[in-house]
Amino acid sequence: MMNIIYTQLCSLIIYLDITVVLGQPLKVCYGLLGNMCKDSSSCFLSLILGLVITLASVPPEVEARAFFVFGDSLVDNGNNNYLATTARADAPPYGVDYPTHRATGRFSNGFNIPDLISQAIGSEPTLPYLSPELRGEKLLVGANFASAGIGILNDTGIQFLNIIRIRRQLQFFQQYQQRVSALVGSEQAQRLVNQALVLMTLGGNDFVNNYYLVPFSARSRQFALPDYVVYLISEYRKILVSVYELGARRVLVTGTGPLGCVPAERAMRSRNGECAAELQRAAALFNPQLVQMLLELNREIGSDVFISANAYEANMDFVTNPQAYGFVTSQVACCGQGRFNGIGLCTIASNLCPNREIFAFWDPFHPTEKANRVIVSTIVTGSTKYMNPMNLSTIMALDSRV
């Protein structure tokens, strides 16, 4: 009977990958236990106790690929809930189609882009970095540092007051790594970050909530649009270099969507509902320069660290031909008021469409969950029209061989 128990104990030790038992290698585990305890049940119980103590001291293993998210409201999943800011989505009808049917801080009726990428890589959704639930082994899943309203520039989104600007998000990333090091050790923490997938979504607010926020804004007086774009790209480059220096080795960088085609800009700037030309011009200048900057960074590094995700083309597919994707309209937001439901905020008092599946836009600025699924499908399997130099499926296949 005792021999069976010893065998089971050794099997358990081997299964749990405990490489040393009482100072002896695993290969002599059975003999060690037998010699030490013979038929003594009290000795056996002592060994069990020792094993329990040993297991309690072993740091958790990092298994699944971690996922980190930086950016603005397109990818914020609740950080702004913990801040004194007007840029928040923690009240109905936000979240009406989320599994809990409650507002979570996501600027969506349901899942947002990071949620769907997490599903694509086989991971559970990342928690907001400011969430008190992000502790212990949940840290190993990754973290979402994004904050609605922010941009590449520090003065973008100042009207929203207390938001987590991008440099602060990177400081939180450093803090996160210290917390993970305390949990699993510095070597494991570094490996987790190096092997992680990172999503970076910035730029739209630098136009919508800065350059074009008001007529004759400070930035529009300082820069002509082409010069402003060059300035944004140079500042974005510094941010991405910092992300690389902090250990990121696979970074999906989304360009801006068709800024002039969201319901808010159609409502404010068009006569007949057409896309606002000036904001479309801004996106047309910004996105190609972003792609070029990423290619140059990769050449300098000598590796495809930065992957360009063409959000403009991914959005324009359903903006210009909504019926092809099962939408009835890409002009009118599901939730809002005024022209195209594009005026003001989405609140409990807003017009709310009964069927979110037929709307490309959820509120005046953000896609519905269904539209987010279209966007993420191009990230996962899209051609070089959408993903340069490779899509997420290719990244996952390549990285699985390392």
What structural keywords apply?
10% strand; GDSL; six-stranded mixed sheet; hydrolase; 402 residues; alpha/beta; globular; two-stranded antiparallel ribbon
Architecture overview:
With 402 residues, this protein is an alpha/beta fold. 43% of the residues lie in helices and 10% in strands. The chain is built from 14 helices and twelve strands. The strands form four sheets. The protein has a six-stranded mixed beta sheet with strand order 4-3-5-6-7-12, with helices on one face. Helix 4 links the parallel strand 3 and strand 4. It is globular and about 60 Å long.
- Rg, Cα atoms, Å: 25 Å
- Quick one: overall form? globular
Q: How many runs of DSSP E, i.e. beta strands?
A: 12
Measured distance between first and last alpha carbons: 45 Å
| Individual helix count | 14
Helix/strand structural class: alpha/beta
- Indicate the proportion of strand residues: 5-15%
Percent helix among the residues? Answer: 40-55%
Major beta sheet summary: 6 strands, mixed
Poorly predicted runs are 1-41, 43-62
What order do the helices and strands follow?
HEEHHEHEHHEHHHEHHEHEEEEHEH
Average pLDDT reading = 88
Major beta sheet, strand line-up? 4-3-5-6-7-12
Signal peptide: 1-23
GO molecular function: hydrolase activity, acting on ester bonds
Family: Belongs to the 'GDSL' lipolytic enzyme family.
InterPro entries: GDSL, GDSL_Est/Lipase, SGNH_hydro_sf, SGNH_plant_lipase-like
Topology at a glance:
Layout: H1 2-15, E1 20-21, E2 24-25, H2 29-37, H3 41-57, E3 67-71, H4 113-120, E4 142-144, H5 166-184, H6 186-194, E5 197-201, H7 204-211, H8 218-222, H9 225-245, E6 251-254, H10 263-269, H11 277-301, E7 306-309, H12 311-320, E8 329-333, E9 335-336, E10 351-352, E11 359-361, H13 369-381, E12 387-388, H14 392-400
Parallel strand pairs: 3-4, 3-5, 5-6, 6-7, 8-11
Antiparallel strand pairs: 1-2, 7-12, 9-10
Helix pairs in contact: 1-2, 1-3, 4-13, 5-6, 9-11, 12-13
